[in-house]
Specification:
The complex is a heterodimer of chains A (221) and B (150).
Chain A (H helix, E strand, L loop, with lengths): L1 E5 L3 H12 L3 E6 L2 H11 L3 E3 L5 H6 L7 E4 L4 H15 L3 E5 L5 H7 L4 E3 L1 H12 L5 E7 L4 E7 L21 E7 L2 E3 L12 E6 L4 H9 L4
Parallel strand pairs in A: 1-2, 1-4, 2-3, 4-5, 5-6
Antiparallel strand pairs in A: 7-8, 8-11, 9-10, 9-11
Chain B lengths: L1 E5 L3 H12 L3 E6 L15 E4 L5 H6 L7 E4 L4 H14 L4 E5 L3 H9 L3 E3 L1 H13 L4 H6 L1 H8 L1
Parallel strand pairs in B: 1-2, 1-4, 2-3, 4-5, 5-6
Classes of the chains: A alpha/beta (221), B alpha/beta (150).
Chain lengths: 221, 150
């Protein structure tokens, strides 16, 4: 694959090295000549000095040949423009942008960027996983947060222990996807009975999460 | 008309003052509160402190109700991003974007943004003056100027 990385900061640098190690063809574009020179000392021809938001620069580095363009500068607006130009002027099939302000993720997708990564949001969800709020832990969100995957360890206080799934009234459209029991995964059916110590993995909508929490973990303190 | 202007630099400050003096409803956004000093005494509009690419700032500047949005900061990419948010998120009827880079201005014009290339306009008008032509003709031929560059 030919990947163009725009932005030679730490993220761009490590991304380039990782891609090179995987034997991809990479070009790292860095706007500052001092920084570009510094990077070139190690990465040689893989580095080019230039502004990834200038059409001429993108032309010079063969953007029309690229499979992926990744914009990882520190400025959201620069990342947006680089991706838009790559896609619309050069027909790059896949554009990815780093988004510093998590609020911009939605806007970027609205404006045609294929995928966005907000490290703030990822770290935040990792923090959420560490904070055991009533023992129902959000694992990840799908489809821009429309569906969440949560996990809950059933304690003796849990209202659903010793009840069959078909007898439990789950909130909304919640689905119990899997149960981890004694290191094994159980794919549940309606007759599966929940036990103390089960780790329940459920798919739920954010709106139903609170009700699910009350149901699986019992009363809040 | 109800207009929101992003960027209280020389252009933004002048535009805001002119529009406000004419009786239009103006809100002007800038990230630096000292920039608002550029506004003339005739300015009767609202000053909004914040980043123009921030939806919350645009919302508090009144974008949902605005008839027009003008992005005239010094940063092309900021202007382009803010304008697209105004157009696609807030459906503002009239959106004008100042883009200094003529190639980017043309590229985004093709994408459906009303861009005005300040450098091209400036160069075109000065050339007309130098050659003794009418600057009005220069403005009329603004869209042809880019062709000349290719």
């Amino acid at each position: 694959m030919y990947v163009i990385v725009i932005g030679g900061g730490k993220v761009g640098y490590y991304l380039t090295k990782t891609l090179l190690a995987d034997n991809h063809e990479v070009l790292l574009l860095e706007k500052s000549s001092a920084r570009a020179a510094f990077l070139a000392e190690e990465l040689g021809e893989m580095v080019s000095q230039g502004d990834g938001c200038e059409v001429r620069t993108l032309q010079e580095v063969g953007t029309s040949r690229a499979n992926v363009v990744v914009a990882v500068t520190g400025d959201d607006e620069d990342n947006l423009v680089a991706c838009q130009l790559a896609k619309r002027q050069f027909g790059v099939p896949r554009t990815l942008a780093r988004v510093n302000n998590p609020r911009n993720e939605e806007v970027f997708e609205l404006l045609g960027v294929d995928a966005t990564v907000s490290s703030t949001r990822i770290i935040y969800s990792l923090i959420e996983q560490e904070v055991e709020t009533g023992e129902v832990i959000p694992l990840t969100a799908l489809k821009r947060g429309e569906i969440e995957i949560v996990e809950a360890d059933l304690t003796p206080q849990s209202p659903v222990v010793a009840r069959a799934l078909k007898d439990i009234h789950l909130p909304g459209d919640t689905v119990v996807a899997a149960i981890i029991r004694d290191q094994h995964i159980v794919l549940p059916s309606g007759t599966t009975t929940l036990e103390i110590g089960d780790c329940v993995i459920a798919l739920t909508r954010p709106a139903d999460e609170a009700a699910l929490r009350a149901l699986l973990a019992g009363k809040q303190e | 008309m109800n207009v929101v202007i992003l960027g209280c630099g020389r252009v933004g400050g002048l535009l805001a003052t002119l529009m406000s003096q004419q009786g239009h409803e103006v809100a002007i956004i800038d990230v630096n509160k000292d920039s608002f000093r550029r506004l003339g005494p005739g300015f009767r509009g609202r000053k909004v402190l914040g980043k123009g690419i921030d939806e919350d700032t645009l919302r508090s500047a009144g974008l949902p109700q605005a008839d027009a949005f003008v992005a005239v900061t010094n940063g092309d990419n900021t202007n382009l991003m803010a304008s697209q948010i105004a157009q696609h998120r807030f459906n503002v009827p009239r959106v004008i974007t100042r883009v200094a880079d003529p190639i980017r201005a043309q590229a985004y014009r093709e994408m459906g943004l009303d861009t005005m290339c300040s450098s091209l306009m400036g160069a075109g008008i000065i050339r007309s003056v130098l050659l003794g032509e009418s600057p009005v003709d220069a403005l009329r031929a603004y869209s042809d100027l880019l062709q000349e560059l290719k």
